Amino acid sequence: MSSEETRAIVARTAPGSFTTDVRVRSHVFVMDEPEDVGGSDEGPTPGEMVAAALAACTTITMRMYADRKGWPLGAVEVRVERLPDGPAEGGRKPTPRYRRTLAIDGDLDEAQMARMRQVADRCPVHRQLEHGSEIVTELAD
User: Fold this and answer.
1) Average pLDDT, stretch 107-115?
2) Same domain, yes or no, for 51 and 91?
């Protein structure tokens, strides 16, 4: 596991507030809930951050691949929308669903465009969402 993967991300909220300060390495940002559910809408929701992580990871993965291949990839825009959950099957909870739309600029041929579509599915966040994760929860002393 790389040192980046072992660094803790810390989120802290004050009593009576959904507004949450999040620290990732040297970066600090705010997450919150919309006003209609009791938040102050000072930042994106945790669910929106999951979708944002999918969008950003997809663009980065596509860029890294094209750069490694020396392909003339221009701008890449990824739009992610949360869809209604899929049906619950076999006693499982409903499956969260997303629509991801890729807008790719550049002088790529048909085969390269098809490959970029495949590469999008290889981004680590996509794989994590698709295959799930194990979360170990413990109380601090």
Assistant:
1) 96
2) yes
- What's the CA gap between 100 and 97, in Å, rounded? 10
**Residue 140 falls within a domain, yes or no?**
no
How many whole angstroms separate alpha carbon 40 and alpha carbon 114? 42
Give the global pTM.
0.87
117-123: long-range contacts (C-beta < 8 A, 24 or more apart)? 119/61, 119/62, 119/65, 120/58, 120/61, 120/62, 120/78, 122/61, 123/54, 123/57, 123/58, 123/60, 123/61, 123/62
* Strand, coil or helix: 95: coil
What is the number of domains present in the chain?
A: 2
Same domain flag for 33 and 55? no
